[in-house]
Amino acid sequence: MEVLLERSQRQRGVDYCPLCGIVRGERSDEVVVYEDNKVIVVESSRPIAPVHLIVFPKAHYVDMAELAISDALPAMLSVVRSFIDRYGIVDKRLGIYCGTCPAHPHLHLQLLCGQVLSVVADDLGTPG
Ligand SMILES: [Zn+2]
């Protein structure tokens, strides 16, 4: 019963997840900058830095524990590494966001390049 409930909750999360909507091709407003069989990279629709990319697995994972049975995280990090190398990105931040991110309840990485908006930098506790 518990397993069925978890599956039901997981399916409901997938149905309403905006990142899963991108995977299903239902969100044409998102700019996809990279895609392979495991990972998609889109530009943030609400950027807080000159370059703000969202890197996520095509499979819906809510938290890190679920990634233990998958190779999605190494695949995502490999894509980030290739972007950093290809574009010679020096000034960068990389964050891992789990199910607590209200805009994207789907495990993802956010790659920020360049000066982060000062209001956000203050929230992060970094010098503006
Ligand atoms: Zn999802």
Tally of individual helices: 5
User: How much helicity do the residues have?
Assistant: 25-40%
> CATH superfamily membership, which one?
HIT-like
Strand order of the largest sheet: 1-2-3-5-4
Q: Span between N and C termini?
A: 50 Å
Q: How many structural domains in the coordinates?
A: 1
| Overall 3D form | globular
Could you name the ranges where pLDDT drops below 50 across 5 or more consecutive residues?
none
CATH class: Alpha Beta
Largest sheet: 5 strands, antiparallel
CATH architecture label: 2-Layer Sandwich
> Could you report the average pLDDT, rounded to the nearest whole number?
81
Kindly name the structural category. Answer: alpha+beta
Q: State which percent range the strand residues make up.
A: 15-25%
Present as ligands are: zinc ion
Rg over alpha carbons: 15 Å
Q: What pattern of helices and strands is seen along the backbone?
A: HHEEEHHEEH
Jot down its keywords:
globular, binds zinc ion, 37% helix, 128 residues, HIT family, subunit A, 5 helices, five-stranded antiparallel β-sheet, 5 strands, alpha+beta
Draw up the topology in text.
Layout: H1 2-16, H2 18-23, E1 32-35, E2 39-43, E3 51-57, H3 64-67, H4 72-87, E4 92-97, E5 108-113, H5 118-123
Antiparallel strand pairs: 1-2, 2-3, 3-5, 4-5
Bound molecules: zinc ion.
Walk me through the structure:
The protein is an alpha+beta fold and 128 residues long. It has one domain (2-123): 2-Layer Sandwich (HIT family, subunit A), CATH 3.30.428. The chain contains 5 helices and 5 strands, in the order ααβββααββα. The protein has a 5-stranded antiparallel sheet. It is globular and about 35 Å long. It starts with a helix and ends in a 5-residue tail after the last helix. The model has no long low-confidence stretch (mean pLDDT 81). The structure holds zinc ion. Zinc ion binds at residues 14, 17, 19-20, 60, 106.
